[in-house]
Amino acid sequence: MLYDTDHKDRGFMKIIVFSDSHRDIKPMTDVVEIMKPDMIIHLGDHIYDAVELRRQFMDIPMEFVKGNCDLGSSAPAYKSVTVGNKKIFMAHGDNFGVRSGTSGILKEGRKRNADIILFGHTHHPIVKHKKETIIMNPGRIGRMARGLWQPSFGVIEIGKEVNCYTVDYEYIIKNPI
């Protein structure tokens, strides 16, 4: 799938990235209403949360993959999309051993010529720059999901430059833009 990056006079496309919602849809709807993205990506666990989010925001393009908790889903485990001139590889991450590090998913993403590699599964938000490749885990958006980290999400801004960062959910609720 190919998406254009010239949006809303901002000069860049804003993509919100969620993972590991674990049946907690409200934080995602809050973020979409506050951040007003041009696109949404959901990295699995639970895929049906992504389907519900798509139903609520039908005018916003959405891409998603399934996670290890999405048994029986026909959604793909990983895929690539092109936004402007940037290729994004997305996976939940469990198929690439991300609990042990990012080398497996980095290798797969590079094999697919990805500029940005997205994964979830660990619930731990990170952004790494590996030469010309950006790797991001948005963390978990689900408030009841296990883990030491607070609910968070990722933001990708694609225009003349690419910016990727994670945002704490509680911060954006207390300090809407």
Low-pLDDT residue intervals, each spanning 5 or more residues = none
> CATH topology, what is it called?
Purple Acid Phosphatase, chain A, domain 2
Helix residue percentage: 10-25%
Strand arrangement in the largest pleated sheet: 1-5-6-7-9-8
Strand percentage: 25-35%
Identify the overall geometry.
globular
Average pLDDT level: 92
Strand tally is 11
Structural class label? alpha/beta
Written as H for each helix and E for each strand, in order along the chain, the element string is EEHEHEEEHEEEEEH
Spatial extent as radius of gyration: 15 Å
- At the first level of CATH, what is the class? Alpha Beta
> How many angstroms separate the termini?
30 Å
CATH superfamily: Metallo-dependent phosphatases
Number of domains: 1
CATH architecture: 4-Layer Sandwich
How would a crystallographer describe the biggest sheet?
6 strands, mixed
Q: Count every helix, treating DSSP H or I runs of 4 or more residues as helices.
A: 4
Layout of SSEs?
Blueprint: E1 2-3, E2 13-18, H1 26-35, E3 39-42, H2 47-56, E4 62-64, E5 78-83, E6 86-91, H3 103-111, E7 116-118, E8 126-130, E9 133-137, E10 152-158, E11 162-168, H4 169-174
Parallel strand pairs: 1-5, 2-3, 3-4, 6-7, 7-9
Antiparallel strand pairs: 2-10, 5-6, 8-9, 10-11
Can you describe what's shown?
- The protein has 177 residues and is of the alpha/beta class.
- It has one domain (2-174): Metallo-dependent phosphatases (Purple Acid Phosphatase, chain A, domain 2, 4-Layer Sandwich).
- The protein has helices spanning 26-35, 47-56, 103-111, 169-174; strands spanning 2-3, 13-18, 39-42, 62-64, 78-83, 86-91, 116-118, 126-130, 133-137, 152-158, 162-168.
- The strands form 2 sheets. It has a 6-stranded mixed beta sheet, covered by helices on one side. A 5-stranded mixed beta sheet has the order 4-3-2-10-11.
- The model has no long low-confidence stretch (mean pLDDT 92).
